[in-house]
Amino acid sequence: MNRIAARNFAVLLGLVLAAPAAARDLPGGLVYLRDIDPSIAQDMRYASRDNFVGQPLPGYDAPECVLRRDAALALRQVQADLAREHLSLKTYDCYRPTRAVAAMAHWSQDRDTGATKRFYPALEKRTLFGLGYIAAQSAHSTGTAIDLTLVRLPATSTPPYDTTVAYGPCTAPAAQRAPDSGIDMGTGFDCFDTKSHTRSPAIGGEPKRWRDVLGAAMRAHGFKNYFREWWHFTYGPHPRAAYDFPIAPRPR
Question: Is the predicted pLDDT of residue 1 greater than 60, yes or no?
């Protein structure tokens, strides 16, 4: 190899090694959900401005669901069961970098401008951490937790989120909340309110029935629900290693 060729090879090798690890290979047996089951809808809220922080969170460089392979395979089984009932899953959040968890905790203690009050209409922002709605550590960072809902098939796309619109609180009727293609579960996603508790006595009728359908489908394949959040489920034994790599675009 001549000197010029050697130098070019060294430059190319350096570019490869400098590429984000997540773009080449996910660590710890993690996978992109689209590679396991592309039929599961994804509406990754923390890669957008439609979330309680009001902006994309650190580490969400792409709107992709990343999970441990065993959790993703179990989720594929849930999806297969639901498809027979003309239903589909839709994910809101999956793997969450620890830097994003830290950003959430910092936000909860920062000055309240009221910009995202619709997510906690009956509470003070500074109380969200102590009440268990925001945590210093999250199973999401291990790739074993997932936030999701149900959508009817054939699925329709979620109308665009408009930052100029004053959407109603997360506890308001579905038509008044921010747009969501999911089935009405009685509250919106990430609604910091007792009405979001999976078995809240304030929720009845169809929303309660759909919460039961979601919970039963997830339990049948090893997922456990967090009682304060109808949308939050974890899979498998704990603890697992927590990660902080950014979510990169899925390799084609």
Answer: no
Can you tell me the distance from the alpha carbon of 25 to that of 6, in angstroms, rounded to the nearest whole number? 27
Q: Considering only the top CATH level, what class is 29-235?
A: alpha beta
Give the global pTM: 0.89
Tokens of 225: 């629900």
Overall average pLDDT of the 96-106 stretch: 97
Is residue 57 helix, strand or coil? coil
**Cα angle, residue 251 at apex, residues 250 and 252 outer, rounded to 5°:** 115
Helices marked H in the chain — which ranges? 3-18, 21-24, 33-36, 69-83, 98-109, 205-219
Q: How many whole angstroms separate alpha carbon 106 and alpha carbon 129?
A: 10
Predicted confidence (pLDDT) per residue in 41-70, tens digit: 999 999 999 999 999 999 999 999 999 999
Q: What is the 3-state secondary structure (H, E, C) of 225-248?
A: EECCEEEEEEECCCCCCCCCCCEC
